[in-house]
Amino acid sequence: MTAQRTLILLKPDAVQRGLRGEILRRIEAKGYDIIALAQRTATSEELAAHYAEHEGKPFYPGLVEYMASAPLVALVAEGEGVIPGFRSLAGKTNPTEAAPGSIRGDLAREWDLPVIQNLVHGSDSEESASREIAIWFPELG
Length: 141
Ligand code: DAT
Ligand code: MG
Fold this sequence. Notes:
This protein is of the alpha+beta class. The chain contains seven helices and four strands; from the N terminus they run E-H-H-E-H-H-E-H-H-E-H.
């Protein structure tokens, strides 16, 4: 298999809870390379492009509000199989259902909020990865 690149976000809850190091450690310990990394507060343009597939869903307004509420860390990780590999490290979307051992399963939980707070985003396909890397790191295109 040839090397892939994936776009990962450490969402505002990960930054606010001081979990950047723990999550980056898991990505590095798995053996993936981090080839770009930046912390910033996302703009509404970046979030509209990033979450275009979810526009119109009931949780969309809460999702973009949460993602813009505080700084996040965007990064690109590289390695054979990194797209499904990071999705596996992250675990299922709902942290209650995410398996122990995964980032969401070990470090996140459910709250009574309009949007699920689950610490991380990872691209779900090669097509999503190229689209998302171009949004967050246009210089890598
Ligand atoms: P994932 O982040 O696992 O790829 P997704 O792309 O389906 O999940 O959704 C994007 C984010 O939106 C997800 O990480 C958390 C939030 N979300 C998804 N489904 C939701 C729901 N039913 N209620 C509240 N928030 C939701
Ligand atoms: Mg998704």
